[in-house]
Amino acid sequence: MSGLMGSKIGMTRILKADGIAVPVSVIRTGPNQILHKKTAEKDGYLALVLGFEPLKTPKKTKKYRYIKEFSINSEEFDQFEKGSAVDLNIFKEGEKITLSSVSKGKGFAGVMKKWNFSGGPATHGCTRHRGPGSIGARAKPGRIEKGKKLPGRLGNEKVTIKSEIVMINQEKGLIAVKGAVPGAKNSLVILKKS
């Protein structure tokens, strides 16, 4: 099984045996229900379709808030049955995993915030303290180059990071990973094996 879905709770720290405090992000995985099994004969590949966070008022077509497909190898395929739940048994403490989430949206941002520009001079008659400066020549080429770093919307895009599992709590369905995880509280986090 390649991964799970979870919900970000927040950050805390865990004290190791040697007294070092490790900052961690806590993710609630809960039960990921197997909704469908994709087979090589019918679909051309092996995968499990999982549902996470059941809706309070389920609809005919949708009973879960999040539905996602995860790849699986042929050895593990028969271990999982449709209707059963996938839990944190697929991960181990100390294992490296890949986490994907949508980062916090920061709205329309200038070049100093978005691209870390240093800005213009503070004195000597300069009136453009936080501006981008020159963005190109005049008649030639007569246009702005593609990919130019300019002001625009910042955040609210998919970010993928690698992290290490510090702690797993099977009873409560919690997993603690080292460092910060992108996204706001209660946002969806995809956990996959690296």
Helix content: under 10%
Number of extended strands: 12
Domain count, please report it. Answer: 1
In round numbers, the mean pLDDT is: 94
**Can you tell me the residue ranges where pLDDT is under 50 for at least 5 consecutive residues?**
none
| First-to-last CA distance | 12 Å
What's the tally of helices?
A: 2
Q: What descriptive keywords fit this protein?
A:
194 residues; mainly beta; Elongation Factor Tu (Ef-tu), domain 3; 4-stranded antiparallel sheet; extended
Could you please describe the fold and organization of this structure?
The protein has 194 residues and is mainly β. It has one domain: Translation factors (Elongation Factor Tu (Ef-tu), domain 3), CATH 2.40.30.10. It is 4% helix and 42% strand. The strands form three sheets. It has a six-stranded antiparallel barrel with strand order 1-2-11-10-7-12.
Task: Provide a brief overview of the structure.
This protein has 194 residues and is mainly beta. The protein has helices at residues 74-77, 111-114, and strands spanning 3-15, 21-28, 32-38, 47-54, 64-71, 85-86, 96-102, 107-109, 152-154, 158-169, 174-178, 188-193. 16% of the residues are buried.
Walk me through the topology.
Elements: E1 3-15, E2 21-28, E3 32-38, E4 47-54, E5 64-71, H1 74-77, E6 85-86, E7 96-102, E8 107-109, H2 111-114, E9 152-154, E10 158-169, E11 174-178, E12 188-193
Antiparallel strand pairs: 1-2, 1-12, 2-11, 3-4, 3-6, 4-5, 7-10, 7-12, 8-9, 10-11
